[in-house]
Amino acid sequence: MGQRRSAALDLLKQKVAGRDSAAGTDQAKKAEAAARIDERLRAAYRYLSEFTNMLNDANPVSDAMQGVSSSASARAMILARASPTCARAEVERTSRADFVTFKYKVRFPQPVKLDATAAEAPRILERLKAMGVKHEHSAKKPSSGMRPM
């Protein structure tokens, strides 16, 4: 019976050792994958930083039609004030790159007049205010279809 016990104990020890080595292998694979992702995100951030410098110096003009609302659109917006960001997170007790963002501002070279319906105007004004866009607005009185004599 003593031999049976030691064989059972040996079997349990082997299973525990196998599980520990598998867990160690999994941890190593996770750490390696996290390091690769971190490296690639940092490379993306460096690329975007260089691109940002060129974009901010160039102030390119987009000739594409830019939709401001469903019925109001405009052309010739200048892309400016770009900025990349690399957010960090704690992964396996190591600070790693979590995600990269790229933002830029657009502006018109000169003020642009947009016509919007009465129903759209409040939403457009709210959007402009939220985006920090300087703007002025005025409302037209609806025409009754009658002309003075």
In a few lines, what is going on in this structure?
With 149 residues, the protein is α+β, with helices and mostly antiparallel strands. Helices cover 46% and strands 23% of the residues. It is elongated.
Task: Note down, in words, how this protein is organized.
The chain has 149 residues and is an alpha+beta fold. The chain has a domain at 31-131. It is 46% helix and 23% strand. It has helices at 2-58, 121-131, and strands at 61-62, 66-67, 73-74, 77-91, 94-107. The strands form two sheets. Strands 1-4-5 form a three-stranded antiparallel β-sheet. Strands 2-3 form a two-stranded antiparallel ribbon. β2 and β3 form a beta hairpin. The N and C termini lie far apart (120 Å).
